[in-house]
Amino acid sequence: MNSQRIWRIGLTGGIGSGKSTVAGLLARHGAAVIDADAISRSVTATGGRAIAAIAQAFGPQMVGPDGAMDRQAMRDRIFQDVQAKRQLEAIIHPLVSQITAEQAQHALDTGHRCLVFDVPLLVESGERWRRQVDRVLVVDCSTDTQRQRVMARNGLPVQDIDRIITQQASRAQRLACADVVIANESLNLLELEAQVSQVAADFGL
Ligand SMILES: CC(C)(COP(=O)(O)OP(=O)(O)OC[C@H]1O[C@@H](n2cnc3c(N)ncnc32)[C@H](O)[C@@H]1O)[C@@H](O)C(=O)NCCC(=O)NCCS
Ligand SMILES: Nc1ncnc2c1ncn2[C@@H]1O[C@H](COP(=O)(O)OP(=O)(O)OP(=O)(O)O)[C@@H](O)[C@H]1O
């Protein structure tokens, strides 16, 4: 493929699929990674741009004494109440879009030719994200592997993980949107690196 062209890659996958790991590997190949989860965390951290709106919509108890959103309380709330989830997304997603666009412009200005948008909810967003990217790269694994990885990573109880998984697009829906799939199942990290190197080469990295 032409190494001079600009590639905008939408990287997505279910919770614990390995998106951030793949994003980190693509960054090592020279991609500029724009991480929607990290931006979402920054706007809900102490002094973040979403804090005032969150306190207004959910009550001041949803903001801790440090001025950051109480993430555990919010997780417990939104994955049990679809209305609350929509309300939080309506506050956070426009900010994420705005900061994403700023970071993408900065990446282009500093000479990057491959931009990777790490967006957990790319498929769920319908056309909103898909029309902004040239290719959709899905990191895929079984639901059981998702559970095991998330439990090992942050000790979330399995019923909480399952609640999140059921609120996300299904594996089949995600695969139906994919232009490229990284099958991150029964692979050790070296084997994953090899798959990512192949994908990176296809995008001029
Ligand atoms: C629910 C929150 C408080 C949980 O925080 P926590 O620190 O436990 O997890 P973290 O932010 O690292 O997210 C982990 C994963 O949860 C899943 N997840 C997060 N938000 C959502 C959501 N709105 N719908 C479905 N899955 C979600 C994603 O797979 C994500 O990668 C937080 O994720 C949040 O503020 N979510 C709303 C904003 C959002 O939609 N973020 C997703 C991408 S912009
Ligand atoms: N092939 C693999 N072998 C072993 N561990 C892996 C592999 N892929 C990912 N992991 C581990 O699984 C966990 C989840 O991976 P990662 O954080 O990249 O997923 P994610 O899709 O970004 O998750 P989330 O949506 O929750 O942010 C991490 O601890 C990571 O190190």
From TrEMBL:
Pathway: Cofactor biosynthesis; coenzyme A biosynthesis; CoA from (R)-pantothenate: step 5/5. One of its GO terms (molecular function) is dephospho-CoA kinase activity. Its EC number is 2.7.1.24. CDD domains: DPCK. ATP binds at G16, S17, G18, K19, S20, T21. Its main location: cytoplasm. It catalyses: 3'-dephospho-CoA + ATP = ADP + CoA + H(+). Keywords: ATP-binding, Coenzyme A biosynthesis, Cytoplasm, Kinase, Nucleotide-binding, Transferase. It is an enzyme of class 2 (transferase). Belongs to the CoaE family. This is Dephospho-CoA kinase. It comes from Limnohabitans lacus.
